[in-house]
Amino acid sequence: MRFAPAAAALSLALALTASVSWGNERDPAPRAGVLIAEGKSALDAGDTQGAIDAFEAALAVDPGYTPIFIHLAEAARADNLQGKAIRYYREALDRDPQNLVAMAGEGAALAEKGALEKAREKLAAVQSLCGETCPETQAIEAAIAAGPRTPVMTAEATLPETQGVQTN
Known about the structure:
By secondary structure, this protein is mainly α. It has a domain at 30-146: Serine Threonine Protein Phosphatase 5, Tetratricopeptide repeat. It has eight helices and no strands. It has helices at residues 4-23, 30-44, 48-61, 67-78, 82-95, 100-113, 116-130, 135-146. The longest helix has 20 residues, at 4-23. It is flat, with a radius of gyration of 23 Å. The termini are far apart. Mean pLDDT is 82; it is low at 12-23.
C-alpha cells in the first residue's frame, strides 16, 4: 500500500508521455524523402507510372511512413485505378484511423468507381470530424457530384457486317 500513490503517479506520467509522442508525425527517412519528392514531381508531370515506381521505392526504404500510402493512392487514382487507390487509402487508415486526407481520398475514389452510397458514408464521417467547410469534405462532395468515371476503352473490337450466309 505504501507504493500505490507513487505507482499511480508513475503510470499516469507514462500514459501521458506515450500518448503525446504517439501523436506526433515523424519525418520520412532521408532517402525515402528524396524518392517521395521524385514521385510528386513525376505525378505533376503526368508520369503516373514513374510516380508509382518512386513511391513504391520510398515505401521499401521506409515502410513505416504512412503518408507514402496516400501518395500511392493519389497516383493510382490519376492512373484511373480506383480499386487500387481504395486499397492504399485503407492501409493508411488502418495505420491512422483519423487521417482526414485518407478518408476523403477513399470517399472520392469510391465515388469515381461508382459506389456512391459508400462515398456518402465517408462524406458523413468526414463531415462529423471537420465540418462542412473543410477541403476534405468539399473534395468528396465534388467527386459525388461528378459521379462515376466512365472507363476508357483503349481498343474496341468491331466485327464487320456479314453480307449473307452462304451454305453449300
